[in-house]
Amino acid sequence: MPKLHPLPGYEAVQSGDDLRRSLAAIRQDGFVAARRSSPWFCAAVAAPIRDDSGAVIAALSVELRTDRLDNAEANALVPAVVTTARAISRRVSPGLL
User: Fold this and answer.
1) Helix, strand, coil: what percent of the chain each, to 5?
2) What is the reported pTM?
3) Which pLDDT score is estimated for 21?
4) How far are the Cα atoms of 14, 54, 84, 86, 88 from residue 94, in angstroms, in the given order?
5) How many CB atoms within 10 Å of residue 16?
């Protein structure tokens, strides 16, 4: 099962190299999931919505307060968000496999 990336927050990206590495990992995984402890205790999962060519045209994101769910519950959101984003992609781009 996919795990939430232990990213501390937006300040984690300190350089262009950090950003490129983060984006490469997100592209490879096909989603991003992160937990943030401050100032808003939250977990977020996002996945791309693609057109017929495979280009990203939108994204589906779910964000919840971490004081209302534990890591296992947050991790369970990953396949649901990815599956839903793929279903939306197929709906808006019928030629997409």
Assistant:
1) 45, 25, 30
2) 0.72
3) 84
4) 39, 12, 15, 11, 10
5) 8
